[in-house]
User: What shape does this take?
Amino acid sequence: MRTGHCYTHQSGALKVWGLTPQLPSSRKIVSCGLNVLQKMNMYIKFLMTSVLLGFMLTETLYSQDEQLHNVAHATIAQGTYSPIEELQIVCFNKFFNKDYLPKEFQKKYKLDDTTLYKKKMLVEIFHSDKAKKGLDSIELVGIKENDNKLVVEYNLVNSNAENDEMQLAPFLIVQVPKSKKEVKFIVNGVELGKTSGVYVD
Assistant: This one.
């Protein structure tokens, strides 16, 4: 079937009417190409803006979660002769102290006083200088918290060079508001490993 041409006879002459397709002009092609590029550019800008906003939102939420606030605390006991070699623990009541600390120690620091645990808890840190580095004191850097965790930071220090020949065992007991947040201990700038079971009811 012929679809490309139409033949007609007029005045003895054969004329051919071509059905040649109309090709778009170069100006139209350029205009179309520019439109496509503009749309692609707008899409890329939109995509980059979305990614940037998502990143900023994530950073803001993470920053808010990580923001720590100081926790009010009071020192209950501190010294150089710990009855326990190495331990970090949080006590909600007197029973751990009653079961594991000498009676003289409990009496000296009034650790059997139930008012210590009224809406409060005790953070207890015990250390023994087995390596004989002259570490004779636990220096509390601070106690901070956010919605998820409680961070206790302290340093083991040599506060008195005169007793470096002695193997001392510093301890520190502080009182803080009661909570059951995740507890993290940071010692000399290094976070201790997982502290599961740190709470004692």
